[in-house]
Amino acid sequence: MYTLGVDIGSTTSKCVALEDGTGIAASSLVRGGIGTKGPSGAIEQIYISLGMSPGDMDAIVATGYGRNRFHEAGAQLSELTCHALGARFILPDVHTIIDIGGQDAKVISLHPDGRMKNFLMNDKCAAGTGRFLDVMANILQISISDLETYASRSKAPASISSTCTVFAESEVISQLACGLNIADIVAGICASVANRVAALVKRLGVTPAVCMSGGVALNAGVRVAMENAIGCPVLYSPKAQLFGAIGAAIYGYQTITSERKGG
Ligand code: ADP
To answer: Is the CB of 130 under 6 A from ligand 1?
Structure first.
């Protein structure tokens, strides 16, 4: 049985095809989220890699910011539930999930059986989200995937005191003008995102094991700064950006299995 999870985000579309609820048969990640060709491109990659067509999928479940506008899905499920399911599938001991995406950040705590216990979210301000990193990478003319390399070279991270992205942008430009080392500026930018989200984590309570999900989890500079800010190791998987799509595919599998059992 094949189930497809489609995570339509604000910046990126992610798909995962799951075989019999246990193995990832194919995955895709395409730049471009809601309102772009990203979702159809990501889905097409899955069908090409599996040699399948839409009718071959036993279930299609959508999640993410754009889930309600994706009408090919048989069901839509919240990102919170999907990230919880996906994180537990890859990292079974996780109790706290820190999801930082392109336009928001969420912290989710789980019951020991994996059900969601509580969550906190910042979707009001770009600081503490991937958007902050995207803006800063653009000013520094560094690719988003290279930020971690710069951060790792820093000996004295710069302090970014502005809590607003627009003011922080001016602060970074003046640091550049003063000749501050780029590695130190990047480390300061990563710490700024981590510290903003760490405040949410502390409000919710840090129950180990902790992991990061979403695209910003790929940035080791933010992960290390997060560990320092919350005082606890942060687990990481290279599939972190796919957790939502994995969770959606798992939900599709669970729904079909329970229907077939008559429950
Ligand atoms: P959304 O679901 O809102 O589109 P994602 O969870 O896909 O968000 O994360 C997107 C964010 O992840 C981007 O804004 C960017 O800052 C960050 N990101 C994406 N790819 C990388 C990478 N290779 N290294 C570091 N950060 C990345």
So the answer is: yes
Tell me the per-residue pLDDT of 139-198, one tens digit each, with 9 for 90 and over: 999 999 999 999 999 999 999 988 788 888 899 999 999 999 999 999 999 999 999 999
Is any atom of ligand 1 closer than 6 Å to the C-beta of 11? yes
Domain encompassing residue 68? 1-91+240-263
Number of domain units in the chain: 2
2-8/59-63 β-pairing? parallel
74 with 134, same domain: the answer is: no
pTM for the structure as a whole? 0.96
Please tell me whether residues 106 and 214 are part of one structural domain: yes
Angle at the Cα of 141 from the Cα atoms of 135 and 147, rounded to 5 degrees? 75
- The answer to whether residue 263 scores a pLDDT higher than 70 is no
| 30, 148: one domain | no
Of ligand 1's atoms, which has the minimum distance to the CA of residue 147? 25
- DSSP-assigned states of every residue in 191-243: HHHHHHHHHHHHHH---SSEEEESGGGG-HHHHHHHHHHHTS-EE--TTGGGH
Q: What's the CA-to-centroid distance between 102 and ligand 1, angstroms?
A: 6
What is the predicted pLDDT for the residue at 166?
Answer: 86
Specify the CATH number for the domain of residue 210: 3.30.420.40
Q: How far is the CA of 219 from the centre of ligand 1 (A)?
A: 9
Per-residue pLDDT reduced to its tens digit, 12-30: 999 999 999 999 999 999 9
Ligand 1 pocket check: which of 98, 121, 144, 186 to mutate, most ligand atoms within 8 Å of Cβ? Answer: 144
Per-residue tokens: 183: 């590695």
